[in-house]
Amino acid sequence: MTSNIASVRAREILDSRANPTITVEVALESGAGGATAVPSGASTGALEAVELRDGDAKRYRGKGVLKAIANVHDTIAPKVVGMPGDAQRKVDQAMIDLDGTPDKGRLGANAILGVSVAVARAAAAEAGKPLYRYLADGEPTLLPLPLLNILNGGKHAEGSTDFQEFMIAPVGAPTFAEGLRWSVEVYHALERILHEGGRPTTLGDEGGFAPPGLANDGAMDLVVQAITAAGYAPGDQIAIALDPATSELESNGKYELTREGSTLTADELVDLWADWCRRYPIASLEDGMAEEDWDGWRSLNARLGDRMQLVGDDIFVTNVERIREGIRQEAANSVLIKLNQIGTLTETLDAIAEASRAGWTSVISHRSGETEDTTIADLVVATGAGLIKTGAPARGERTAKYNRLLAIEAELGDRARYAGGSALVQSRA
Ligand code: 2PG
Ligand code: MG
Known about the structure:
binds magnesium ion; three-stranded antiparallel sheet; alpha/beta; 13 helices; binds 2-phosphoglyceric acid
C-alpha cells in the first residue's frame, strides 16, 4: 500500500530560455517525496493544452506563472491531498474534472502536469524504484534511439534555416552510449566545418548550431558532410531525422520558405519531401505538413509512409482523439509525445498505447524551453517506445536527459538493449 498524498507545493523557477516555469513538489505521508519541472514550447501547436501565464506585463514580460501556482495551492492541493500516492489515474482524472475545460485552460496544463508527474515521482520514491521501473508494466530494458538536433532553425533560431530541426540518429550503433558518442563526434565535426567555412558557431534554443543565411538543402548537405567527416556512414550508421515544423510556415494552405524565396502548395511540399528522401538518408520526418492540412498529411503518407517514419506533432498534440482520427485517416505512421501538450501523465501513457495498438511508433520529446528535469528519459525506457528527441548533445537541460539515459543503461548492465534503427517505422516493413 502506497501512503496518501500529504502536501503539494509549487514554485516559480526558470527554464532554458530565461522564462519562468513551474516546479511542483509532492510529499506522501510516509515522508517520501518527488519533484518535477514543466517545460515550454515555442512552435506550439494551436490545439495544445493551455499553458497558463499571468499576462502581467510588469513581471517577466507577462510570462509569470503565479496564477498556475495559486491554482495548485488553492484548487488542486485540497482535492488531491489524502488520495493514495499510487492512484495516478484517479489523481489525474480528479484534476481533469476540477479543471472542467477541454484544453485545461482554467487551471492550466502546466499546473496540472506539474502535480501529475510529481505524484508519480513521489510514489516511485516510496516504492524504492527508479521512475522508469515504477512506470513500466514489466521489466523495462530498452534504451531508445536518440534523435539529436544538431542544426537549429525556424522559431528556435531566428535567421537560420526555415526548417526547424536537423537531427541525427545513430541507427547502427551497438549501444546507447556508443550511439551518443558517435553523435557527439558528428556534432563536433559540424562545428569544425562551420568554423572552417567562416560561419558562426552560435547555438539555437535546443543546443544545435544555428548558422545564419543557410538554405534548407544547404543545411542537409552540411549534416551529411559532418557525418562523413566524423567517420560514419550516412544512412547505415547515422541517419537523418527532420522536424521542419511546417505549421509555422503555412498560411492559407500555402507553405512559405523565406530563405529560398519560394511559396509551395501542399502538393509541391510533398514533392520536396519525396525528392529529399531520394537525395538524403532520411529515416524520420516530423510535421512534414501543417497541423490542419489533413489532405496534405494523407498524400504525404500515401507517397512516403512505406519508406519512412512520418511523425505527427502539431497535428496530434499527444491527444488520443486526434491520434485516433489520424489512424482512421491514415494520415501518418508515428506520433510525437509531449507531456505538456496534453497535461497529465495518464493521458500521455494512453496516447502512446493508442499509437502502439495501430502499429505506430511514438517519439518521446522535450520542448524547446526546458529544465534539468529528466522525466522523458525515464518515460521512454518505461514505455519501451524506443525513440527520444531531446536536442543537441550540448547545453545542460539537453544533456541532463542523455546523461540520465546513460545512467539507466549502466544500471541495467547486461540486461540493457539498444533500440537503434529497429525502433523506426520503416524497419518494421
Ligand atoms: C517541436 C518542439 C521540440 P517546441 O516542434 O517538436 O523540438 O519544439 O517545443 O518549440 O514546440
Ligand atoms: Mg515538432
